[in-house]
Design goal:
By secondary structure, this protein is an all-alpha fold. The protein is 79% helix and 0% strand. Helix 6 packs antiparallel against helix 7, helix 12 packs antiparallel against helix 19 and helix 13 runs parallel beside helix 16.
Amino acid sequence: MTTTQEDQNFTLRSIAVPAFGPALLFCIGEGAVLPVIALSARDLGASVAVSALIVTLIGLGSWLFNIPASLITMRFGERWAIVGAGAVGALALGAAAFAPQMEHGIWLLAAAMTLVGMSASVFNLARQKYLTEAVPVMFRARALSTLGGVTRIGIFIGPFIGAGVMQFAGISGAYWVGFVGMMAAAALSLTIPDLVAPATSDGGPIPRASTLRNVATSHAGVFLSVGFGILLLSALRASRQVVIPLWADHLGMDATQASLIYGLSGAIDMLVFYPAGKLMDRKGRQWVAVPSTLIMGVALILIPFTGGFVPLLLVALLIGFGNGISSGLIMTLGADFSPDSGRSHFLGIWRFIADSGATGGPVLLSALTAAISLAAGVWATGVLGFAAAAVFAVAIPRLKHRRNY
């Protein structure tokens, strides 16, 4: 890997506002509405099951739209894809604010949440591709870990802003916070500098991959190895969000105690993203990929042995630390293995795999809890961490030559 003087002089601060500002604003908007979607659905007359389904439509919309998102990004470029995604997401949340006034408001709410998920898919893929190409490789993990950290911060503080506005505007206030956040993200994204097209060794432009199938087949080894690892990691991450409140309820804690434990775990999560990115840049991706998944796996295995507030809090903090140091890991590995030609297609497939794990993890937990017990479901989730660590330990060094630097 060679570096230029320009690379050496690069600082993340130089791109902080256009690169990370829109992500923070978009996620504040998303975080503001996440706690109230189910409540809105219930107010519109939906059953508990239907309300839960509407909440999942954001994740499903994002998951299923990853491949189309790659095509949109290739067609319109990173900046306009990000701008458009922010604007569409804002309009969807604005429409959702009017759902209580509509005769069939539940359908409007469902459509709006699906559209928010689709917008998030385009937004996330385009910003990942932009940072992959705009940031020198020696800063790549730090940039993408910071992006992951900013996302966590936005999702964390969004509900507090939404709660403040709801004191004056009712439940629709959260959707207006989401509207303003995403529209501001779209507006700020207009300041993102255009990328200069990379060139081949002979000075000509790098040709784009002809088809999605071409990228999928030529990188099948990466998708089936490291890709399987990120699927397991995504399942682990999504499941731990459900495990902590469920086990708190199992121990008889009230909602306040459960929320406190969950919030403190999230706070630890947000504090360690940059050091982890720096470690990945200096030592290699394995130095974070393996320890983070092992830590989360061990912590989840310990949860069924906790019997009170303090033990559960300590284990939850350990989970937060493990998840925090893995901030940006999935994006960094996707950037590492993505080809210069057809990067959008590659990242679309990569994100589809990751979102498949995020969707399947809680389903596995639910199925094992229903069939055996909650403890069995939690232990099975912990095993996902050990499996992911094993995959990363073997696959990352073996495929190191596939990285595009």
